[in-house]
Amino acid sequence: MATEPEPQGPARRTPPAQTARTAAASGALRTASGLVAGRAAPAVARGLPTRSGESTPDWLEPAMAANGIGSFDWDIRHDVLEGDPRACAILGLAADRFDRSSAAFLAMLHPEDAPVVRRRVERAVTELGQCGAYYRTVFPGGEMHAARFRGRVLADAFGRASRMVGFVWDATVELHKRVRAGELAALREERSRFIKEAARALSEAVTVRDVARVFTELPLPGLPPDGLVLASLEAGRLQILGATGYRPEDMHPYDRSPIVASHPAAEAIRTRGPVVIASRDEYRERYPEAWPRVSETGRSAWVFLPLVASGRVIGVCLVSFDDDRELDADERTLLATLGGLVAQSLARARLHDAEHELAAGLQRVMLPRTVPSVPGVTTTVRYLAAGSGLQIGGDWYDVVPLPGGHVGLVIGDVQGHDVHAAGIMGQLRIALRAYAAEGHPPAAVMARASRFLADLDTDHFATCLYAEVNIDYGVVYAVRAGHLDPVVRRADGSTAVVPVVGGLPLGVASDEEYRVTRFSLDPGETVVLCTDGLVEARGMDLDTGFARLCEAVSRDLPARGESAADPLDVLADRIASQAADSTEREDDIALLLLRWDGPAGGLAAQQLRRRIGQADLARISELRGELRDALRRWGVPELVDTAELLASELVTNAIRHTDRDAMFTARLYRDPEQGGGARLRIEVEDESDLWPTRRTPGEQASSGRGLMLVEALADGWGVEPRGSGKRMWFELSAEPEGPAA
């Protein structure tokens, strides 16, 4: 407790006589050992002398006794303290055992009060004036007490300070008031701090579950609850969101149950005001129908707070105590304020949860429910949403089974994070899937999708990567529209980013033409496709993100059969877990993985079958590349040059001279009886009845040598009729490998 401030009077000029008295008083102070040591304190006396030394008037003694006031007399020069019994009692001393030195008495004072008393006494002695102070003392039993004194300095015949006389009275009641006031001030400060911290914690709560967790962990200062329950109001029923201090079996009868009109929670909802119940008897008297169930909980006081937000009651929170509790005005205000904070936070969280569920449902509808199972490959997908509420992204993935032993992989990202972007994503996914299923080559699929998005006129664009995988022999034809390059995990566990020729994002230019990049997979190798949320974030550039992705992809995986989960799912979970643990992620993530398993034995199927459109001359170049890859995989690389040349001639003749599509088929046959020798048969079918004619072109002719080349280089060739059209074919033989040297 701080002592009262020292009185300060107005400044004035000191007359010469007063200066002489001050010097004389200073000499007297030097003779008092207590003051010389810097100490001074009130003393007790057996009477109150006047300035002339006469005794206390008879009429004053009864008044002092009636008011519990003691008197003191301090001989300044000899440092002798005298007092009456009442003064000793006020100070907690026995009159016959009182040490009459001021130094010993100062030791009884509170360390904070002693300097104040000393300064005020010294000033009074110097100025021959009056002084007073409030100070605390400790009784011999250890109790803290307080006293006030008022004294006046008397001068001798020479004008020197010789005595201080005055009164002392008990101020312990005032001490208790000050202590109580200090405690209340500290409690109010603590409660104010609690409200600020609770408001901050509730403002950071995003979901209803977060609000329930924060509420049930709140420590009410000065009002520690023994039970807390938070319940929302849904269609006239209470749904328990969180509780502490109660057993689950106590809460179960109330969860999702209709509100009974006789229950105090119903009254709080009806009146929109808190319902305070101070004791068990009061509960039994006010709510007799609800009492039997409540009596088993062991609580003795309850406060039901209605949660009102936007003028509507959305729930109730319960604060209960194990003992009887009468709440004062401050405590009721604290609980009412807390109820308002919880109501606003709960209303915001319920809106967030509803928006998030709507967004998640919309996104689930837009994305494929399941990834189709395609023989020869294994696929898996992951989706990690980063937005909250309606802040959903336009990321998507798709797996499209295609005719002719192919499968299409799609990964993309529509610009923006809102419902509009998600709607565009759904339209674009369906359109791109339709284009791919129609059998268009990858470049045409991407070009048509770009025109489709541009025609929507939405001011949105999208990045996308479309990859067509030949399941028979593991060749990938990839087209990229402003998207990320794919990552491939090789059979030896190494990882590399495969560069794919890129074009503009979809929807930027309706006439954009895209180029195809072809790369091959060995059995067991995996293609990883992702959106930019996986490799780009605040504080992480693209190179760092790709390095982290490659490191995660290249780590060891269990072999198939070693664990219950497929190694591809283990890899997908590893990548998704690393992304989910990152605090820098701000974007959604779509992840698509495909592993080419290949046929049994790890060898590619030894047949290649393709349809070449009459107007799709560029497809002939792609066919030559596929044939080269197939022959190398089939183990007959020595046939590549001849087979590529002759196949190109036959296909070109078919689509140029018949005005029809052509069907190309390449098969490799092996004869075990001839030491494993291989025979390649290539067929080109068309629907024209016009048979080819062998010509003899001149030296300057630019065409007409196709059949001449076939006849000269093939081991055998011919033309066969079909039901409608014809089939041209040729065969090449490969010598069996000789024994190792």
Automatic annotation (TrEMBL):
Keywords: Hydrolase. It comes from the Bacteria. Residues 377-596 form the PPM-type phosphatase domain. Residues 206-356 form the GAF domain. Residues 11-27 have a biased composition (Low complexity). Gene3D superfamilies: 3.30.450.40, Histidine kinase-like ATPase, C-terminal domain, PAS domain, PPM-type phosphatase domain. The keyword Lipid metabolism does not apply. Residues 1-27 are annotated as: Disordered. InterPro entries: Bact_Sigma-Reg, GAF, GAF-like_dom_sf, HATPase_C_sf, HATPase_dom, PAS-like_dom_sf, PAS_fold_3, PPM-type-like_dom_sf. SMART domains: GAF, PP2C_SIG. It holds the Pfam family PAS_3. Transmembrane segments: none annotated. Signal peptide: none annotated. This is SpoIIE family protein phosphatase. It comes from Kitasatospora kazusensis.
